[in-house]
């Protein structure tokens, strides 16, 4: 067996995680119509060769429903985490560079958002924006930016005081050049890793508020909807309705986490020789 | 040109002790001035004030009679720091570090013994002595008129020290750059400098 070094192993892990997530997203989006098809001649089938994850009380194929739900979750996660991290980048940089008053105001908002339990704020925002896809995305985006904004604010504050940046100023390097050449290379690994590690949170929170009934509408084949509906049938012994979608949700979250962690390792300059 | 520190007083914050008190010094372009003082007497602080990194509480720094902060863009007073790893960005290759200087010529790079191979490495991949040569080269840009050398050779072996200093002396003499050298080593300053000045405890 060939011994792989740490870096190659990490690249492979990252690749597998990303490919799996892309495949799930594409396949799920492709089968979104099939996930709604009901057929009473095949209802309540236990998992088998023909229906891998079984079928539900309306005869819908749970395998396809799970994939479609995951695909929906991943798309919401990417959109919400993307908006959220751009918000974090903007507010973090503004707090660090625009003087004391702006810093105090932004830090106060960060503390405020962090002080309220995520799920409560999520439900409020999602409900205020009329639930559904829009409500969930805005809710997740508005609640998940705080910790990344803090990291970026701290990083920029530290960079501003760094001797090599002050020296660059004395050498006549312009502010734009300093931001691009000196600060950006320090910020983008933080930003990218923060963004990817935000996906699992976003996906889990989407699933939870949908489960609670404040998120996506019930006709949508989303993981949260599937899980909350299957609760009624668990007592009747139809374990497959909750088990497989739940397992796949956990798997997706773990894979995003793996992807984020391996990216962090790869971007760390200290790992060059590993 | 003349670099002039006029009655400078300085301390870090209100609570801390007075580091410099009414200290004055004048350096001309053809001079090499050495500063000697024990640890904690404010040698580095004085260099930082002269190069414009810190503003004095009282007094002023004049370059040819004009306050130093009126010079925009490239600062004609450049400082070489004691710890080179603090003044190079860990995420930039050494080639980029050199590029930041003001048109550093090949003769400077050769004179300091910088090898072509080092330029494509990151700061973490070269030694402190190698990094210090890059910092010296970067400070020797075309528009540099005064050079402040704050303990620049403490991390080097004696042979390299003498190489670097003889190159620096030749270079500042040829280009009429005024030099201020700070060191604990009296014998070194006696060899390098034309004048030596003692920093008193304030």
| Topology pattern of chain B, helix = H, strand = E | EEEHEEEHHHEHEHE
User: From the alpha-carbon coordinates, what is the Rg of chain B to the nearest angstrom?
Assistant: 17 Å
Kindly state the mean pLDDT of chain B as a whole number? 89
Mean pLDDT of chain A: 84
Please tell me how large the radius of gyration of chain A is. Answer: 22 Å
pLDDT under 50 segments of chain A (min length 5)? none
The strand count of chain A comes to: 0
Unreliable spans of chain B are: none
Percent range of helical residues of chain A: over 70%
User: How many strands, which pairing sense, and closed or not: the largest β-sheet of chain A?
Assistant: none
Secondary structure category of chain A = mainly alpha
Tell me the major beta sheet of chain B: 5 strands, parallel
Largest interface summary: A-B, 17 and 24 residues
- From the N-terminal CA to the C-terminal CA of chain B, the straight-line distance is 29 Å
Strand content of chain B: 15-25%
How many β-strands of chain B, per DSSP?
A: 9
Residues in helix, % of chain B: 25-40%
CATH class division of chain A: Mainly Alpha
The third-level CATH topology of chain A is MetI-like fold
Helix/strand/pairing category of chain B:
alpha/beta
- Name given to the CATH homologous superfamily of chain A: MetI-like
């Amino acid at each position: 067996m060939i011994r792989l070094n740490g870096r190659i192993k990490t690249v492979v892990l990252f690749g597998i995680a990303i490919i799996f997530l892309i495949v799930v997203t594409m396949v799920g989006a492709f089968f979104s119509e099939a996930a709604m098809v009901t057929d009473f001649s095949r209802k309540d089938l236990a998992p088998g060769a023909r229906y891998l994850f079984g079928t539900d009380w309306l005869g819908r194929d749970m395998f396809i429903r799970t994939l479609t739900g995951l695909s929906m979750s991943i798309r919401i996660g990417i959109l919400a985490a993307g908006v959220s991290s751009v918000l974090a980048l903007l507010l973090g940089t503004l707090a660090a560079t625009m003087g004391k008053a702006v810093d105090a105001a932004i830090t106060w908002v960060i503390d405020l958002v962090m002080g309220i339990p995520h799920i409560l704020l999520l439900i409020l925002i999602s409900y205020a924006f009329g639930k559904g896809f829009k409500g969930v995305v805005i809710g997740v985006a508005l609640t998940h930016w705080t910790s990344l904004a803090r990291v970026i604010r701290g990083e920029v504050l530290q960079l501003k005081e760094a001797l090599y940046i002050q020296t660059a100023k004395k050498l006549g390097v312009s502010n734009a050049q300093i931001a691009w050449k000196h600060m950006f290379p320090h910020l983008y690994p933080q930003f990218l890793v923060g963004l990817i590690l935000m996906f699992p949170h976003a996906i889990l929170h989407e699933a939870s508020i949908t489960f609670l009934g404040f998120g996506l509408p019930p006709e949508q084949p989303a993981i949260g909807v599937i899980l909350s509906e299957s609760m009624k049938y668990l007592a009747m012994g139809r374990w497959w309705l909750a088990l497989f979608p739940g397992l796949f949700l956990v798997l997706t979250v773990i894979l995003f986490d793996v992807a984020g962690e391996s990216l962090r390792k790869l971007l760390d300059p200290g790992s060059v020789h590993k | 040109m003349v670099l002039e520190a006029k009655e400078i007083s300085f301390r870090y914050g209100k609570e801390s002790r007075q580091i410099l008190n009414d200290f004055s010094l004048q350096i001309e372009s053809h001079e090499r001035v050495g500063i000697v003082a024990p640890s904690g007497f404010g040698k580095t602080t004085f260099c930082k004030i002269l190069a414009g990194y810190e503003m004095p509480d009282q007094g002023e720094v004049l370059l040819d009679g004009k306050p130093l902060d009126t010079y925009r863009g490239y600062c004609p007073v450049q400082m070489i720091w004691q710890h080179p790893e603090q003044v190079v960005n860990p995420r930039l290759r050494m080639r980029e570090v050199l590029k930041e200087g003001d048109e550093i010529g090949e003769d400077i790079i050769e004179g300091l013994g910088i090898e072509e191979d080092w330029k494509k490495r990151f700061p973490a991949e070269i030694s402190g002595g190698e990094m210090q040569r890059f910092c010296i080269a970067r400070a020797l840009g075309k528009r540099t008129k005064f050079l402040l050398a704050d303990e620049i050779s403490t991390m080097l072996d004696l042979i390299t020290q003498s190489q670097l200093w003889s190159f620096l002396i030749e270079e500042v003499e040829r280009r009429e750059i005024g030099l201020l050298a700070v060191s604990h080593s009296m014998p070194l300053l006696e060899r390098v400098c034309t004048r030596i000045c003692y920093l008193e405890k304030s």
